[in-house]
């Protein structure tokens, strides 16, 4: 439920609106394989330990076979300097990584 925790942060009114929109989405579980992949992503040092949740988002999407992971986080996820390396870590661990991009990149 990492995404729910993130959505609940910030302005209470905005958080309530985000939660309402999230209600229409399927929340993916965080299985042991995703936990192990999170550890591998962190061990690669491509994503710093302080951004463990970012690594977990990538891992959960990969383990569940998602085609895309949309994010506005261009520091630790949708970052051209590391995205292919993240995909390599996922592949090394036996999971095809999703395309990691911003919503804008997907729509243009």
Give an overview in words.
- The chain has 108 residues and is mainly α.
- 52% of the residues lie in helices and 6% in strands.
- The chain is built from six helices and two strands.
- It has helices at residues 2-7, 12-22, 32-43, 52-63, 83-92, 103-107; strands at residues 68-70, 99-101.
- A two-stranded parallel sheet has the order 1-2.
- Strand 1, helix 5 and strand 2 form a beta-alpha-beta unit.
- Helix 3 packs across helix 4.
- The chain starts with a helix and ends with a helix.
- The relative contact order is 0.15.
- The model has no long low-confidence stretch (mean pLDDT 94).
Summarize the structure.
This protein is mainly α and 108 residues long. The protein is built from six helices and two strands, in the order ααααβαβα.
